[in-house]
Specification:
This protein has 18 helices and 21 strands. The strands form three sheets. Strands 2, 13, 14, 15, 16, 17, 18, 19, 20 and 21 form a ten-stranded antiparallel β-sheet that branches. The protein is globular and about 80 Å long. The chain has about 675 residues and is α+β, with helices and mostly antiparallel strands. The longest helix has 22 residues.
Amino acid sequence: MDSTRFSAPLPFDSVAITDGFWQRTMELVRKEVIPYQWETLNDRVPDAAPSYSMRNFRTAAKMQAEKARKGAAYVPPSYTWRGFEALPEDAEHLEEDRFYGFVFQDSDFSKWIEAVGYSLSQHPDPELEKLADGAIDIVCAAQNEDGYLDTYYLINGMDAAWTNMRDHHELYCFGHLTEAAVAYYQATGKDRLLQAACRFADYVDAHFGPEDGKRKGYPGHEVAEMALVRLSEVTGEERYLRLAAYFVNQRGQEPSYFVQEEAERAAREGRPVRPVDLYYYQAEKPVRQQEEAHGHAVRAVYLYSGMADVARKTGDESLFEACKRLWNSIVNEKLYITGGIGATREGEAFSFPFDLPNDSAYSETCAAIGLVFFARRMLQISPDSRYADVMEQALYNTVLSGMALDGKSFFYVNPLSVQPVACRRDQRLSHVKPVRQKWFGCACCPPNIARLASSVAQYAYTAGEDTLFTHLYVGGSVTKMFHGTALTMEMRSNLPWDGRAQAIIHAEAPVQATLAFRLPGWSDNPTVSAGSRQPFVENGYVYFTGEWREGDEITFEMPMPVRIWNADPRVRENLDRVAFTRGPITFCAEEADNGSDLHLLRVDDLDPAHVRVERDGTFGHPTVRLIAQGKRTVPQPGGLYRAAARPAEEDVQIALVPYYAWANRGEGEMTVWLRS
């Protein structure tokens, strides 16, 4: 690895987003989503599945106060986890000193507070900050004096802590708490939650590692790996990086920790040993030997993100090579055209290569978010437009599809074809919802969207010692110090609808610097000019090196043609079908524009130049729609089967709208891939 090309996101206060597209989304998160999700965390949204998250923290904090009052260990009753339990109609009937919800319910709070931190960095809000500080007080009050902070075991009893690493998500909750603590500290300068995360990290470090007497396990659901790297970076504590590397390197080693753990649990519970699907947990072999992305898709890309972080921080070439192999497995064989990953509901997992069903697609919102994490970390190691193209594809399509345009309902699953009656009557499609839901008992996705949308600045730009990289053309300004002198670049952009952009340099004194800009894969022959400066192009980035002065300009002309795509013929579901994109946006056909029975539509003209691009305000903000020439099969009378003949067809115009905006006009059919 060439460490001179490494980069990192800029400090929060170095980037301001004014982009019309993303500012709308970020303001939606700030004004609607964050307050709405706070209500859901406190179980105050009618007809929405309860979270129990803050209730559990309050219960654990009360128990800690009781311990302090009595001056002795408080011993709660012992419960066996039963999974999600619905909130009784009368909330007063909830039992005292009882944990409710999934074992990972703590992470709902963590992702929410992380989103708050990012939002505050762009838009200071004293009332929101006061609310967040109060929530942090509750969480910190729940922490054990030894640093442990997971309400499932704090409430139910610590005797079984760390005995089910595979499924009970203690390190997952730790990871999200740590990510949140770092973000809130970087946004506000307040370190109370950060100190709690460090104490928890110290506790974990004292119990896991290669040393004698420590556990040899690793997270069942990955995220702690990248969180520990981030904690190490902000605190300067090398132990946290070593612990992250340990979790990465220990995974998949023999003897299998998860297999041993299962045998121990079976003996304690007096039951037969159950088989362990190590592929589901990305633990069937050491990570450097893994060549195919498989298992639970969210866990996988969270692991790969942590691997990339560890590779960058330790200079581990073999680990980076493994990351590249796994990246290629995803992008070349298992990626939806919407940027979604994870094709099957069975295990919320990657399927086999080229198995990308449309109507039964799982494509979890969190998996696309994890792919964005992975892509940026690969970019930090190796600035290559292939990584940024996929990051952008996932971000503008599946990630945004996961949230309604009013910010009050969400998709967990993001299919590429929907027939509402099938979702209700076909059990094979019961995971697919034709409209977004207010909340989920397993509510990982909504706060995950909030934290990513609020932190888009961390993905648009990164910087090395002498280079400022632009990965996404997001309007706003970014400031970086070069050899003691500040350079501010003001980006003016109309993406994702127009490929023209302009960057204007502001500097009080001349600045010697390199500015690098991605050449998007969706653009034909993009041109970037910076006056008389001569650029060089490498791996899809154009570089300008020289002295920059106040008022210097860089102009971008990135043609944004409509593209009509075929899938690889090994994708059986899409043989003889086409999909439409323009710029980073994938388009779909909805019943609201084209009537029902979308399966009867056929694209008749495959020349992209003949597709009309129209400005559109249907969804309450400026978008575009595509109008393609097509045919609609006209059903003829007859039996269920009849003699083969070419079907009768009528001419139609097929209207296509951005995929991220589908299902915002009520329930109806939708499809991305159309017959051709």
